TrEMBL record:
This is Uncharacterized protein. It comes from the Bacteria.
Length: 111
């Protein structure tokens, strides 16, 4: 493979990778609808069974929602959920969960 062909391929892949990174880093700044406790538990059960990534929005007294807590469930201890994020492990009270969603793994080239 010549240098030029390789260079074009790298650019082509970089184009899709940059779109994927933008999608992952997109700031979510809208309140989601409050979920029932039963629905929260159903989603959490699915996340645990599938070993998926989840996104949690907590109740807040602020006018604007805080950032989603995105990660994987590391442990469950009573009414506490331990979520492994990219930075650390966050401990979340189940009662504080306003909205939770299971995030399926998406291949960067299918976006």
């Amino acid at each position: 493979m010549s240098g030029k062909q390789y260079h074009n391929m790298k650019k082509w892949r970089g184009f899709f990778l940059s779109q994927h990174i933008e999608q992952l880093e997109k700031v979510e700044d809208e309140w989601e609808e409050v979920m029932s406790e039963e629905l929260v538990y159903q989603v959490l059960n699915s996340v645990i069974q599938n070993r998926s990534t989840l996104a949690i929005q907590q109740h807040s007294s602020d006018l604007s929602p805080g950032p989603y807590i995105i990660g994987r469930i590391a442990a469950v201890e009573g009414d506490l959920l331990h979520v492994q994020t990219n930075e650390n492990i966050q401990v979340i009270e189940l009662e504080s969960i306003r909205y939770v969603e299971e995030r399926k793994f998406q291949k960067w080239f299918e976006a």
